[in-house]
Amino acid sequence: MDFLLLPLFSFLVGIVVGLTGIGGASLITPMLIFVFQVPPAIAVSSDVVAATLMKVVGSIKHWQQQTLDREVVKWLALGSVPGSLLGVGILHLIKLKAEHNLNNIMLHLLGVTILLVTVFALMQMLVLTFFPKVQLPELPKFDLTTGVGRLQTLTVGAFLGCVVGLTSVASGSMFALALITFFRLDTRKLVGTDISQAAILLIFTAIGHLTLGTVDWNLVLPIWLGSVPGVLLGAKVCQIAPQKPLRFMVYFILMMVSLKLVY
């Protein structure tokens, strides 16, 4: 039954990722923990490996559709890849010093990260939707034609990459927030850029998690079976689907999931 349910749920998550660029690890990892009773450390590592193929397939689709910004992808990835490897290195240290507490630490890291990501994203979306005339203080837009803009992008990428390496979360949601805040990308290019840089980031993060020895291929393969066709379908429909209602629904689900993980 689990072998049938896991691909089905992964297919639905894949559609959400293809449509919005967010929600992959934030939904699949808690699903593995709560629905399939997988230990948190194994759930996080297996999801990183599984999400890699899903994001790579989605990025190829968006590349073909020209719904991405290649320069933003390049400079974010140059920061996020070493950042993610640092995060995996921290997990190696935790495993070495306190292996018996690894699952407990991972569970709370995961919950707090999803909660923070969701709260910031939801607040921004609600203010822009219901109070469009409110003048929010704008952070500076990163100009990738200058050295300062590239350095800023590398720094943001490195920080968020470290979070992804630690928890598997935020390869979509936090980077989407950064793209909105610092690059002002339109919705269609936002999704494609988000998924494409996440694909590059997760390739290296997955290699790091494989060295931890906490990847379960019995979970990875069914997730691939469902998520890959799901993300292809979602990426295709992305061009015509309304983004705001979809994102609000995803953020609401993530809020409930994160509170469950934390408490």
TrEMBL record:
The chain crosses the membrane at residues 75-94, 106-131, 151-183, 195-213, 219-238, 245-262. The keyword Cell membrane applies. It is a multi-pass membrane protein. The keyword Cell cycle does not apply. Keywords: Cell membrane, Membrane, Transmembrane, Transmembrane helix. InterPro entries: TM_pro_TauE-like, TSUP/Inactive_protease-like. It holds the Pfam family TauE. It is found in: Cell membrane; Membrane. Belongs to the 4-toluene sulfonate uptake permease (TSUP) (TC 2.A.102) family. This is Probable membrane transporter protein. It comes from Nostoc spongiaeforme FACHB-130.
